[in-house]
């Protein structure tokens, strides 16, 4: 297996360098929200949008229930609507509001908060299928979590699923992917970097610990994840945490791996990139699966570098399917 990285030119005033932010692709536009430039200090609450065809940035004029600035936030889109959940505010308080953002009207709406839905958290993970968004894990008020929730975007209600068993430790920064009708939890950080894989079947409501084989990635967290076809792709991530915790930069990976959701075999991809067009080692990126120039792939924007400098570049990875 192989794939190619493309570095995207940026025109206009963009979000700039940041990490712990979120991006979601709707059509040929990438929407960016949240994040930090200085550790633990939210940058802004603008909705930035990047046109993949024109390669230009804009800040949208928005209306409605605009969320306050936050870090460790997640976004996923269904149709023309983006859903934004949780994060941590400038007072380092964990959040649990669910917002929607209508990309046609540029209007924010608060859908749930307080005792409704998942408890407060940041550095959790999100994914979506045709009708539901899924939230898993993260850092809660009393430590790391391992609960899985779904928000049904048609019925507009939250569903809490059964907790996984003892083999699945609470974790922050895991990969989460809706692939093959199942919700996959890949790796993450539980005080140590993890290398386990689990999936949840929403039909049977059963959790399964997956025995993987092949060219298995080393334990890691806060990496970029995308389900394309039957494969779960992961890129980068933190493989050795900093002694300073979130204030520092750990050791980051730079490879792309794919997990076959049918055979449970890992493979490291042969990566092609023109000079200067490989993103290199990084973690805490904003990432989203999507389509560019008619090809499915993984968009990666910004993140943290091994020097603890925030990054502001954009890359698109296209696997050779």
Automatic annotation (TrEMBL):
One example of the protein's molecular function in GO is: enzyme regulator activity
Q: Which GO terms describe its cellular component?
A: cytosol; nucleus
Which superkingdom? Eukaryota
Q: Which UniProt keywords apply?
A: Iron, Kelch repeat, Repeat
GO terms (BP aspect): glucosinolate metabolic process; nitrile biosynthetic process
Q: Which cofactor is essential here?
A: Fe(2+)
Query: What is the name listed in the Swiss-Prot or TrEMBL entry for this protein?
Result: Nitrile-specifier protein 5
Which organism's genome codes for this protein? Dioscorea cayennensis subsp. rotundata
What is the gene name?
Answer: LOC120262490
């Amino acid at each position: 297996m192989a794939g190619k990285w493309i570095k995207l030119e940026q025109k206009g005033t963009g979000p700039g360098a940041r990490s712990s932010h979120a991006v979601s692709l709707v059509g040929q536009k990438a929407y960016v929200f949240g994040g930090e430039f200085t550790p633990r200090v939210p940058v802004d609450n603008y909705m930035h949008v990047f046109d993949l065809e024109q390669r230009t940035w804009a800040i949208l004029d928005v209306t409605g229930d605009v969320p306050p600035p936050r870090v460790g936030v997640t976004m996923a889109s269904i149709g023309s609507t983006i859903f934004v959940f949780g994060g941590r505010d400038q007072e380092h308080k964990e959040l649990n509001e669910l917002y929607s953002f209508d990309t046609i009207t540029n209007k924010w709406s608060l859908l749930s908060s307080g005792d409704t839905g998942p408890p407060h958290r940041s550095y959790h993970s999100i994914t979506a299928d045709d009708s539901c968004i899924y939230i898993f894990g993260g850092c809660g008020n009393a430590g790391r979590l391992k609960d899985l929730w779904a928000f049904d975007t048609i019925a507009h209600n939250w569903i809490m699923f059964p907790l996984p068993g003892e083999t699945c430790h609470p974790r922050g920064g895991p990969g989460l992917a809706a692939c093959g009708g199942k919700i996959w939890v890949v790796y993450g950080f539980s005080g140590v970097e993890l290398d386990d894989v689990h999936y949840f079947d929403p039909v049977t409501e059963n959790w399964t610990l997956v025995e993987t084989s092949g060219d298995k990635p080393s334990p890691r967290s806060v990496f970029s994840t995308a389900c394309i076809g039957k494969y779960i792709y992961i890129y980068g991530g933190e493989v050795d945490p900093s002694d300073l915790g979130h204030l520092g930069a750990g050791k980051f990976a730079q490879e792309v791996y794919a997990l076959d959701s049918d055979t449970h075999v890992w493979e490291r991809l042969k990566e092609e990139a023109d000079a200067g067009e490989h993103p290199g080692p990084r973690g805490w990126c904003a990432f989203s699966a999507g389509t560019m120039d008619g090809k499915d792939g993984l968009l990666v924007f910004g993140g943290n570098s091994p020097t603890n400098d925030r990054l502001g570049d954009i890359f698109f990875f296209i696997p050779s399917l």
